[in-house]
Amino acid sequence: MTNNAKLDSLYDSITTCQRCKLAKLEVNKERIRNKIGVNNILIISQNPSHIRTNRLGDEFVMGGFDKLVSPTSSDKLFKLLEKCYITNIIKCSFTNNKSPDDAHELAGVCIDWLLDEVRIIKPELIIVVGSLAKECLPTKKIFEIVPKVNIMYVKHPSYYIYKREQEVIIKTMIDILSKYSTTQMRIM
User: Fold this and answer.
1) Nearest Cα to 99, choosing from 24, 49, 42?
2) Is the pTM of the predicted complex or chain greater than 0.90?
3) Which of 92, 140, 87 has the alpha carbon at shortest distance from 114?
4) Which of 35, 86, 97, 109 is found 20 to 30 A from 53 (Cα to Cα)?
5) How many other C-beta atoms are found inside a 10 Å radius of the C-beta of residue 99?
6) Domains plus CATH for the chain?
7) What digits encode the pLDDT tens for the residues 43-97?
C-alpha cells in the first residue's frame, strides 16, 4: 500500500472518530480532510477551522495559511504549501474557532492519530503552527519515530494578521519551505 493510500485510510478513520465531545458538535458532522503532500515536510497546526471550505475553495486543512495566500497573492508560498503535508494536533473543529478550556485534554485524545501520520510520512521537517500545537506536541514520541526530524515553531498566521505583519510570516515560511523543498526533498 502506498503512503497516500495509507493516509487516505487513516483519514477515513479520523473522519468517523467519536472519541471526544468535539465529534458530537454540529460543525464536525462533516470533517475537513488533512492535506496530503509530496515532500518531506509536515505542518502541524492547532485544529481545523469551523468553516468547511476555505477561501481557496479547498476542502483540505491549510494550517491557517489560507488566510495569507491564494493562487494569485503570495504565489510562491502557495506553491510551496501545496507540496506539504498539513494536519492538526486536534482533528475536530471548535465551535466558532473558540478554543475550549479543556483543549489540552482534547489534544491528548488525538495524539495517536498524529503519531500515525508521522509514522507514515516520516518527515524530515515538522513546522508547528500556533501555541496550542506547540504545547501539545508529543515531541519525545515523534523523535522515537523519526529521530533525525527537525522541528520548528512559528506563531499562527492569525497572529501576524492581527499585528498586520503578514509579510513577516510569508517571508519566513518561504525561506524555510524553499530550503527544505529544494535541498532535502525526498522522492516518494
Assistant:
1) 49
2) no
3) 87
4) 109
5) 15
6) 3-183 (3.40.470.10)
7) 999 887 765 444 445 555 565 676 666 555 567 888 888 889 999 998 888 877 6
